[in-house]
Amino acid sequence: MLDPLDHLSALRVFEAVARLGSVRLAAMELGVTDGAVSKQIRALEASLKTELFIRGHRKLILTETAERLAQSLAAAFESIVRSVERAERSGQRGRLVVAAPATFLVRWFLPRLPRLLRRLKGTEIDVVAWNKDPVATDRSIDIHVVVGGETAIPGMIRHTIGPETFGPVATPALLAEGGPPEAILGVQRLTTVWPTAMWSNWSMESGVALPETPMLRFERLLFAIKAAEAGVGAVLAPGPAVWDAIAAGDLVAPLGLYRRDGNWALLWRSDQTSALHMSTLRWFQAEFAASEAAAFGMS
Protein backbone atom coordinates (compact mmCIF):
# COMPACT_ATOMS: atom_id res chain seq x y z
CA MET A 1 0.00 0.00 0.00
CA LEU A 2 1.22 3.48 -0.88
CA ASP A 3 2.33 5.53 2.14
CA PRO A 4 1.05 9.09 1.50
CA LEU A 5 3.67 10.59 3.83
CA ASP A 6 6.36 9.39 1.44
CA HIS A 7 4.70 11.26 -1.42
CA LEU A 8 3.63 14.55 0.16
CA SER A 9 5.52 16.66 -2.39
CA ALA A 10 3.95 14.84 -5.31
CA LEU A 11 0.49 15.08 -3.72
CA ARG A 12 0.92 18.80 -3.17
CA VAL A 13 1.94 19.24 -6.81
CA PHE A 14 -1.04 17.22 -8.00
CA GLU A 15 -3.47 19.24 -5.84
CA ALA A 16 -2.12 22.50 -7.30
CA VAL A 17 -2.42 21.24 -10.89
CA ALA A 18 -5.96 19.97 -10.27
CA ARG A 19 -7.06 23.20 -8.57
CA LEU A 20 -5.49 25.56 -11.11
CA GLY A 21 -6.13 23.39 -14.18
CA SER A 22 -2.66 24.09 -15.53
CA VAL A 23 0.86 22.68 -15.17
CA ARG A 24 2.27 26.17 -15.86
CA LEU A 25 0.16 27.88 -13.18
CA ALA A 26 0.95 25.15 -10.66
CA ALA A 27 4.66 25.54 -11.37
CA MET A 28 4.41 29.31 -10.85
CA GLU A 29 2.54 28.89 -7.55
CA LEU A 30 5.02 26.31 -6.25
CA GLY A 31 8.11 28.10 -7.54
CA VAL A 32 9.38 25.20 -9.68
CA THR A 33 9.71 24.45 -13.38
CA ASP A 34 7.00 23.01 -15.61
CA GLY A 35 9.18 19.96 -16.10
CA ALA A 36 9.48 19.36 -12.36
CA VAL A 37 5.67 19.44 -12.03
CA SER A 38 5.18 16.98 -14.90
CA LYS A 39 7.81 14.66 -13.43
CA GLN A 40 6.06 14.62 -10.03
CA ILE A 41 2.71 13.88 -11.67
CA ARG A 42 4.16 10.94 -13.66
CA ALA A 43 5.84 9.57 -10.51
CA LEU A 44 2.58 9.82 -8.54
CA GLU A 45 0.65 8.03 -11.29
CA ALA A 46 3.26 5.29 -11.32
CA SER A 47 3.05 4.86 -7.54
CA LEU A 48 -0.76 4.81 -7.59
CA LYS A 49 -0.77 2.54 -10.66
CA THR A 50 -3.50 4.66 -12.22
CA GLU A 51 -3.79 7.63 -14.56
CA LEU A 52 -4.89 10.92 -13.03
CA PHE A 53 -5.45 12.87 -16.24
CA ILE A 54 -7.16 11.97 -19.49
CA ARG A 55 -4.50 12.42 -22.16
CA GLY A 56 -5.06 13.63 -25.69
CA HIS A 57 -6.89 16.85 -24.77
CA ARG A 58 -5.54 20.38 -24.99
CA LYS A 59 -7.13 21.09 -21.61
CA LEU A 60 -6.24 19.10 -18.49
CA ILE A 61 -9.12 16.76 -17.63
CA LEU A 62 -9.13 14.85 -14.36
CA THR A 63 -10.21 11.24 -14.21
CA GLU A 64 -13.02 10.39 -11.81
CA THR A 65 -10.49 8.96 -9.34
CA ALA A 66 -8.36 12.09 -9.63
CA GLU A 67 -11.34 14.38 -8.94
CA ARG A 68 -12.09 12.57 -5.68
CA LEU A 69 -8.42 12.64 -4.69
CA ALA A 70 -8.11 16.35 -5.50
CA GLN A 71 -11.12 17.23 -3.33
CA SER A 72 -9.79 15.25 -0.38
CA LEU A 73 -6.30 16.73 -0.71
CA ALA A 74 -7.64 20.31 -0.92
CA ALA A 75 -9.52 19.83 2.35
CA ALA A 76 -6.52 18.17 3.99
CA PHE A 77 -4.04 20.88 2.99
CA GLU A 78 -6.47 23.62 4.09
CA SER A 79 -6.75 21.89 7.46
CA ILE A 80 -2.96 21.84 7.76
CA VAL A 81 -2.80 25.57 6.99
CA ARG A 82 -5.43 26.38 9.64
CA SER A 83 -3.64 24.24 12.23
CA VAL A 84 -0.33 25.98 11.59
CA GLU A 85 -2.00 29.41 11.79
CA ARG A 86 -3.59 28.53 15.13
CA ALA A 87 -0.25 27.28 16.44
CA GLU A 88 1.43 30.53 15.37
CA ARG A 89 -1.26 32.68 17.00
CA SER A 90 -1.14 30.71 20.25
CA GLY A 91 2.42 31.85 20.84
CA GLN A 92 1.76 35.50 20.00
CA ARG A 93 -0.15 38.42 21.41
CA GLY A 94 -3.47 39.16 19.70
CA ARG A 95 -2.93 40.87 16.38
CA LEU A 96 -5.44 42.22 13.88
CA VAL A 97 -4.74 43.52 10.37
CA VAL A 98 -7.49 45.88 9.19
CA ALA A 99 -7.66 46.98 5.54
CA ALA A 100 -9.88 49.77 4.20
CA PRO A 101 -9.99 52.55 1.59
CA ALA A 102 -7.58 55.37 2.43
CA THR A 103 -10.29 58.05 2.68
CA PHE A 104 -12.26 55.93 5.14
CA LEU A 105 -9.15 55.31 7.23
CA VAL A 106 -8.13 58.96 7.46
CA ARG A 107 -11.57 60.50 7.86
CA TRP A 108 -13.34 57.94 10.08
CA PHE A 109 -11.26 55.04 11.38
CA LEU A 110 -8.02 56.63 12.58
CA PRO A 111 -9.72 59.26 14.79
CA ARG A 112 -11.49 56.36 16.54
CA LEU A 113 -8.56 53.96 16.65
CA PRO A 114 -7.66 54.77 20.30
CA ARG A 115 -11.16 53.65 21.33
CA LEU A 116 -10.83 50.37 19.45
CA LEU A 117 -7.43 49.75 21.04
CA ARG A 118 -8.94 50.29 24.48
CA ARG A 119 -11.75 47.87 23.67
CA LEU A 120 -9.38 45.20 22.37
CA LYS A 121 -6.89 45.69 25.19
CA GLY A 122 -3.60 43.90 24.48
CA THR A 123 -4.35 43.46 20.76
CA GLU A 124 -1.93 44.88 18.21
CA ILE A 125 -3.70 46.48 15.23
CA ASP A 126 -2.05 46.95 11.84
CA VAL A 127 -3.80 49.37 9.46
CA VAL A 128 -3.52 48.96 5.69
CA ALA A 129 -4.88 51.18 2.90
CA TRP A 130 -6.60 48.80 0.48
CA ASN A 131 -8.67 49.37 -2.66
CA LYS A 132 -8.53 45.93 -4.27
CA ASP A 133 -11.27 43.31 -4.18
CA PRO A 134 -10.79 40.99 -1.16
CA VAL A 135 -10.06 37.31 -1.84
CA ALA A 136 -10.17 34.43 0.61
CA THR A 137 -6.75 33.17 -0.49
CA ASP A 138 -5.07 36.35 0.77
CA ARG A 139 -4.20 35.57 4.38
CA SER A 140 -2.33 38.83 5.02
CA ILE A 141 -5.55 40.70 5.96
CA ASP A 142 -7.76 39.76 8.91
CA ILE A 143 -10.63 42.21 8.33
CA HIS A 144 -11.58 44.14 5.19
CA VAL A 145 -13.81 47.22 5.39
CA VAL A 146 -15.81 47.36 2.15
CA VAL A 147 -18.71 49.33 0.70
CA GLY A 148 -21.27 48.56 -2.00
CA GLY A 149 -23.63 45.78 -2.98
CA GLU A 150 -23.63 42.39 -1.27
CA THR A 151 -21.61 40.48 -3.83
CA ALA A 152 -20.77 37.00 -2.57
CA ILE A 153 -17.06 36.21 -2.33
CA PRO A 154 -16.26 32.48 -2.06
CA GLY A 155 -14.67 31.62 1.26
CA MET A 156 -15.57 34.93 2.92
CA ILE A 157 -18.43 36.12 5.12
CA ARG A 158 -19.88 39.63 5.22
CA HIS A 159 -21.29 41.53 8.21
CA THR A 160 -23.09 44.85 7.67
CA ILE A 161 -21.97 47.78 9.84
CA GLY A 162 -24.11 50.52 8.34
CA PRO A 163 -25.87 51.88 5.24
CA GLU A 164 -24.03 53.36 2.27
CA THR A 165 -24.82 57.08 1.94
CA PHE A 166 -23.37 59.94 -0.07
CA GLY A 167 -24.23 63.52 -0.91
CA PRO A 168 -22.92 67.05 -1.52
CA VAL A 169 -21.27 68.95 1.33
CA ALA A 170 -19.61 72.37 1.60
CA THR A 171 -18.56 74.90 4.23
CA PRO A 172 -21.38 77.02 5.69
CA ALA A 173 -19.53 80.15 4.52
CA LEU A 174 -20.09 79.23 0.86
CA LEU A 175 -23.87 79.18 1.25
CA ALA A 176 -26.11 82.14 1.93
CA GLU A 177 -27.72 81.91 5.35
CA GLY A 178 -31.38 80.92 5.01
CA GLY A 179 -30.97 80.08 1.33
CA PRO A 180 -32.61 77.08 -0.33
CA PRO A 181 -30.89 73.68 0.14
CA GLU A 182 -30.36 73.42 -3.63
CA ALA A 183 -27.99 76.41 -3.48
CA ILE A 184 -25.15 74.01 -2.74
CA LEU A 185 -25.45 72.74 -6.32
CA GLY A 186 -24.63 76.18 -7.68
CA VAL A 187 -21.13 76.47 -6.19
CA GLN A 188 -17.98 75.09 -7.82
CA ARG A 189 -18.13 71.31 -7.94
CA LEU A 190 -15.20 69.25 -6.63
CA THR A 191 -14.67 65.73 -7.90
CA THR A 192 -12.06 63.08 -8.61
CA VAL A 193 -10.17 62.21 -11.77
CA TRP A 194 -11.45 58.64 -11.32
CA PRO A 195 -14.22 57.68 -11.02
CA THR A 196 -15.42 60.53 -13.22
CA ALA A 197 -19.20 60.17 -12.92
CA MET A 198 -19.75 60.65 -9.18
CA TRP A 199 -21.93 63.74 -9.52
CA SER A 200 -23.99 62.42 -12.45
CA ASN A 201 -24.51 59.13 -10.59
CA TRP A 202 -25.72 60.98 -7.52
CA SER A 203 -28.06 63.11 -9.65
CA MET A 204 -29.54 60.03 -11.33
CA GLU A 205 -29.96 58.10 -8.07
CA SER A 206 -31.32 60.98 -5.99
CA GLY A 207 -33.48 62.48 -8.74
CA VAL A 208 -31.97 65.96 -8.23
CA ALA A 209 -31.02 67.84 -11.41
CA LEU A 210 -27.56 69.43 -11.63
CA PRO A 211 -27.13 72.98 -12.98
CA GLU A 212 -24.11 73.91 -15.08
CA THR A 213 -21.27 74.84 -12.74
CA PRO A 214 -17.46 74.79 -12.93
CA MET A 215 -15.72 71.50 -12.04
CA LEU A 216 -12.41 71.06 -10.26
CA ARG A 217 -10.83 67.60 -10.31
CA PHE A 218 -8.48 65.97 -7.80
CA GLU A 219 -6.43 62.79 -7.95
CA ARG A 220 -7.94 61.49 -4.70
CA LEU A 221 -11.27 61.95 -2.95
CA LEU A 222 -9.38 62.78 0.24
CA PHE A 223 -7.90 65.86 -1.47
CA ALA A 224 -11.31 66.96 -2.75
CA ILE A 225 -12.80 66.75 0.76
CA LYS A 226 -9.97 68.80 2.23
CA ALA A 227 -10.50 71.38 -0.52
CA ALA A 228 -14.19 71.54 0.39
CA GLU A 229 -13.26 72.16 4.04
CA ALA A 230 -11.02 74.98 2.84
CA GLY A 231 -14.00 76.63 1.13
CA VAL A 232 -13.04 75.82 -2.48
CA GLY A 233 -16.38 74.27 -3.41
CA ALA A 234 -18.85 71.46 -2.82
CA VAL A 235 -17.76 67.84 -2.84
CA LEU A 236 -19.79 64.67 -3.19
CA ALA A 237 -18.66 62.45 -0.32
CA PRO A 238 -19.58 59.21 1.45
CA GLY A 239 -21.15 59.53 4.89
CA PRO A 240 -18.26 58.25 7.05
CA ALA A 241 -15.85 60.66 5.36
CA VAL A 242 -17.83 63.75 6.40
CA TRP A 243 -19.95 62.84 9.43
CA ASP A 244 -17.42 64.23 11.90
CA ALA A 245 -16.99 67.46 9.93
CA ILE A 246 -20.78 67.92 9.78
CA ALA A 247 -21.08 67.28 13.52
CA ALA A 248 -18.35 69.88 14.16
CA GLY A 249 -20.03 72.46 11.90
CA ASP A 250 -17.11 72.55 9.45
CA LEU A 251 -19.29 71.19 6.63
CA VAL A 252 -23.02 71.19 5.95
CA ALA A 253 -25.19 68.86 3.89
CA PRO A 254 -28.37 70.87 3.22
CA LEU A 255 -29.76 68.19 0.89
CA GLY A 256 -28.88 65.42 3.32
CA LEU A 257 -27.05 62.27 2.31
CA TYR A 258 -28.72 59.93 -0.16
CA ARG A 259 -29.02 56.30 0.95
CA ARG A 260 -27.86 53.86 -1.72
CA ASP A 261 -28.79 50.19 -2.12
CA GLY A 262 -25.42 49.02 -0.78
CA ASN A 263 -23.90 49.11 2.68
CA TRP A 264 -20.65 49.33 4.59
CA ALA A 265 -19.51 45.96 5.86
CA LEU A 266 -16.68 43.93 7.37
CA LEU A 267 -15.42 40.91 5.47
CA TRP A 268 -13.20 38.12 6.68
CA ARG A 269 -12.42 34.52 5.79
CA SER A 270 -15.18 32.11 6.78
CA ASP A 271 -12.69 29.90 8.65
CA GLN A 272 -11.38 32.85 10.66
CA THR A 273 -14.32 33.94 12.84
CA SER A 274 -13.24 34.48 16.45
CA ALA A 275 -14.27 36.38 19.57
CA LEU A 276 -11.81 39.09 18.49
CA HIS A 277 -13.53 39.46 15.12
CA MET A 278 -17.00 39.60 16.66
CA SER A 279 -15.95 42.18 19.25
CA THR A 280 -14.48 44.32 16.47
CA LEU A 281 -17.68 43.96 14.45
CA ARG A 282 -19.85 45.14 17.37
CA TRP A 283 -17.52 48.12 17.89
CA PHE A 284 -17.81 49.14 14.21
CA GLN A 285 -21.60 48.84 14.27
CA ALA A 286 -21.93 50.97 17.42
CA GLU A 287 -19.45 53.62 16.25
CA PHE A 288 -21.08 53.84 12.83
CA ALA A 289 -24.51 54.44 14.32
CA ALA A 290 -23.19 56.96 16.85
CA SER A 291 -21.18 59.01 14.34
CA GLU A 292 -24.06 59.25 11.86
CA ALA A 293 -26.44 60.23 14.68
CA ALA A 294 -24.02 62.93 15.89
CA ALA A 295 -23.81 64.42 12.38
CA PHE A 296 -27.56 64.81 11.97
CA GLY A 297 -28.72 65.24 15.55
CA MET A 298 -30.49 61.90 15.70
CA SER A 299 -31.19 60.40 19.09
Please specify the SSE layout and strand pairing:
Layout: H1 8-20, H2 23-30, H3 34-48, H4 64-90, E1 95-100, H5 102-119, E2 124-129, E3 143-148, E4 156-169, E5 189-192, H6 198-206, E6 215-218, H7 221-229, E7 234-238, H8 239-248, E8 258-269, H9 275-296
Parallel strand pairs: 1-2, 1-3, 5-6, 5-7
Antiparallel strand pairs: 3-8, 4-7, 4-8
Helix pairs in contact: 1-2, 1-3, 1-4, 2-3, 5-8, 8-9
Structural overview:
The protein is an alpha/beta fold and 299 residues long. It folds into two domains: 4-90, Orthogonal Bundle (Arc Repressor Mutant, subunit A), CATH 1.10.10.10; 94-299, D-Maltodextrin-Binding Protein, domain 2, CATH 3.40.190.290. It has helices spanning 8-20, 23-30, 34-48, 64-90, 102-119, 198-206, 221-229, 239-248, 275-296, and strands spanning 95-100, 124-129, 143-148, 156-169, 189-192, 215-218, 234-238, 258-269. The protein has an eight-stranded mixed beta sheet, sandwiched between helices. α5 (102-119) links the parallel β1 and β2 (124-129). The N and C termini lie far apart (71 Å).
Major sheet: 8 strands, mixed
Kindly report the CATH topology of the largest domain: D-Maltodextrin-Binding Protein, domain 2
Number of helices: 9
- Overall mean pLDDT stands at 88
Question: How many β-strand runs?
Answer: 8
The first-level CATH class of the largest domain is given as: Alpha Beta
Uncertain runs: none
| Whole-number count of domains | 2
**Named CATH architecture of the largest domain:** 3-Layer(aba) Sandwich
Task: Provide the helix percentage.
Answer: 40-55%
The Cα radius of gyration reads: 26 Å
Q: Secondary-structure element order, as H and E? A: HHHHEHEEEEHEHEHEH
Q: State the secondary-structure class.
A: alpha/beta
Give the strand order, joined by hyphens, for the main sheet: 2-1-3-8-4-7-5-6
Distance between the termini: 71 Å
What's the shape? elongated
- Strand fraction: 15-25%
